[in-house]
Amino acid sequence: MREAGLGTVLLLLAAMGCGGRDVSVTVTVRTEQRFQTIDAWEATAGSPWESRHFDRYVPDLIRKGIELGVNRLRLEVRSGVENAVDNFERMRSGALPFSEYRKLWYATTNDDGDPHHINWKGFHFTELDLTVRRMVLPYQEAMAKAGRSLAINVCYVAFTKQSGPGTLYIHDDPEEYAEFMLATLLHLKKTFGIVPETWEILLEPDNVPQWSGELVGRAMVAAGQRLEDAGFPTRFIAPSCEDLGASLAYADAMASIPGALDTLEELSYHRYRGVSPASLQGLSNRARRWKTKAAQLERIGADHRMLREDLVTARTSSWSRYVLGDPQSRRGGGYFWVDLEAPDGPVVRDADGTRFLRRYMSRVPRGSVRIAATSSRPRSLLPTAFWIPDGECVVVLDVRVPTKVRLEGLPSGTYGIEGASATRSEFKLADVEVGKSGSVTFDVASPAVLTVAPRRP
Fold it and tell me: What is the pLDDT of residues 134-159, one digit of tens each?
């Protein structure tokens, strides 16, 4: 390879069997045109107690998660923590069948009659503590060793339709909800020294009959006052509806409550239903109008094209598929799945589609800013570009047909090209030099997702 007189490099992908191509696409990067800042690649910590093999595979799962770029864990806390009985411990000890535990894990009993007084005997954090000890703390330690920090998002879960007959639910009272949040945060701080960056108000309130958008707003106001009084810097994520259309409606309703937006860090949605360019744009517009950030925080099976649409149309700053990984996640429930049938013991493998998500997540750390990138033929190739904190430009190319690609607008320097395809989980191409012209040209023999990034020493 050598630099041509006009600063254009022709990269022939001989290893991919590349020849001449009929389709030529020019991708233009504009580093001066900037959009959202990337905050978090999130994964749900999961429930370590659900697999008896967990301790055997968790070190490799954590290592792979960090290599992928996951830098925030969703730590779920069930509403049933506030209960006179530790039903989780009863289930683990065998005193309560799991089928019966499922009917109780969101059921609540009031710790006392005063929402401004915490009776600690009325809270049982056994399940939460198990997840922190077996997943969150090891992940945090591994991140620190890698010179990075782990963000923690505590997510309140209350799918009350699963609760059995005769059970109670008290957290539809904003003050009782605020007490529960404060008790959880105080417990995490005292027990583990953890002060979460964010608190997700409620997982999928459109699936919880007691909750409305207005109640989300009132809970945010009440809980926000408790945060201020207790000196917690934690901020809120909401509304996180399953249906994106519902997220818009809930967002408007919660915004109608005075003070509800004062502590909103991320305007969140899931992309299971109601997703369209118009609805994604609608959420982006609200986030910018309210001076907050957009976040897509759950879609089992989400692929790289959904990710790009969220990044470009909704301008998301945080994004998640779902769990980090478990034995049930092969089809994309998480980023990884655990093969329990491997002859030498559990093996952590990529879930379907993770090889393509890696092209984005692994090279775009917290603090990166999405910059403008356009394609002369969007049906053949869709680009996404970022300015990363090191002061470098990274471009991800979703190449859909055999294509001759010309990249323009790159800062000069040495670039590496790494990719994934349907038949190759990862491959590396020869480094290229970009001269003063800022352009580079290369052929792509078959559909692939490529990352073009400055080569590090």
Answer: 999 999 999 999 999 999 999 999 99
